[in-house]
Amino acid sequence: MGMGFGGLWMAFFLLVPILGLYLLFAERPDRRRVAGPPRSAVEAVRERYARGEIDGETYRRLIQDLEG
Q1: pTM reported for the whole predicted model
Q2: Which residues of 43-66 are buried (b: 16+ CB within 10 A; e: fewer)?
């Protein structure tokens, strides 16, 4: 008699999650992250200061150390 509608629904509910996982984790060219040029240590310190991770005194000391 064949699979019938019950078998089709079972196949549907098995294939949809598999397809979803494939689409989620498949590597696609449009999702690749393009690395930019490496940032300098001075730029990293400036970003940390801008985010408030370090105070002004630490910022000045680090910049002075890095720039010589």
Answers
A1: 0.46
A2: eebeeebeeeeeeeeebeebeeee
